[in-house]
Amino acid sequence: MSQDTSKASTSSQAADLAASPSESQASDPALDSATQPKDEEFARKAHRLAEEVFEEVVEEKEVNGRKVKHKGIYLLPNLFTTGALFSGFYSIIAGMNGDFSAAAIAIFVAMILDGLDGRVARLTGTESAFGEQYDSLADMVSFGVAPALVAFTWMLQDLGQFGWIAAFVYVAGTALRLARFNVQVGSVDKKWFIGLPSPSAAAIVAALVWVLHDFALESALIQILVAVVIAAVGLLMVSNVRYYSFKDIDLKNRVPFIALLILVLVISIIALEPGVMLLLLFLGYGFSGPVRSVVRRQTLVEKKNAKGEGTR
């Protein structure tokens, strides 16, 4: 028994002696100082190689009358934009595979992510020109190309030339809407959108596909009606009709308790039949602009007539 114990202790001491050189070697300051320049040189070469392969994004801003250059991009808001872009691309793939309900849901997911990227950028102070351009390109895919291709694959292709023209009118309307929005940033009232916003237009098309596909409504009359609606939505995006933007709502301030109850009620109603409720919701928003314009014009005419009668 004692011999076994002595053998075990001897073997453990030998293992410690065998391990001690490597441990002392790993913690040797001289070795650390010798390998540090090599690591730094490797990092510099890797960074230089990355710059040669991938051109760095450089933004120029004017701060206190001086032009300051910034390299790189902000990761957090662009992650949300990338997620929206992925959802739009997935919607196209799902539509090509005949899964139109999943294609419509993916467009709504893209809407949520698109709404978050701008808010996250403003809250974290990570707004940039690169982010604005990237967001517009992602919107073109998620809210322009994806809804049009899904609708065309689902139903419009049966209408032949009339079907793809209706889809193209929608895609062109989205592109023009986004281009006009980019050049008008900062020069229009933030309380209103000029023309139907592209996410809302995409929501109308996606909900229309979702509902009609689930209820198997695919008659010739329905096909023509869908083509007309999609083309009309495309024209509304480039119109001068004003839509309420909801941007003046401050989510950081306190609100009455009933506001939360109303929100819970709205979510519960949408959950009963998501496709139908979302279609009614966004169709109502789409009609709100033209209805408001007609009412506003009628009010102005009445005021003008009343003023004319008063001066007689």
CATH architecture: Up-down Bundle
Query: H/E series, N to C?
Result: HHEEHHHHEHHEHH
What's the gyration radius in Å?
30 Å
Q: Which fold name fills CATH's third level, the topology?
A: Four Helix Bundle (Hemerythrin (Met), subunit A)
Low-confidence stretches: 1-27
CATH superfamily: CDP-alcohol phosphotransferase transmembrane (TM) domain
What's the arrangement of strands in the largest beta sheet?
1-2
CATH class: Mainly Alpha
What's the structural domain tally? Answer: 1
The SS-based structural class is mainly alpha
CA(first)-CA(last) distance: 127 Å
| Helix percent band | over 70%
Shape: globular
Average predicted local confidence, pLDDT: 82
Descriptive report:
With 312 residues, this protein is mainly α. The protein has one domain (62-305): CDP-alcohol phosphotransferase transmembrane (TM) domain (Four Helix Bundle (Hemerythrin (Met), subunit A), Up-down Bundle), CATH 1.20.120. It contains ten helices and four strands. Strands 1-2 form a two-stranded antiparallel ribbon. A hairpin with a 2-residue loop joins strand 1 (58-63) and strand 2. Helix 4 runs antiparallel to helix 5, helix 5 (129-154) packs parallel to helix 7 (198-214) and helix 6 (161-184) runs parallel beside helix 8. The radius of gyration is 30 Å and the shape is globular. It starts with a helix and ends with a helix. The model is unreliable at 1-27 (pLDDT under 50).
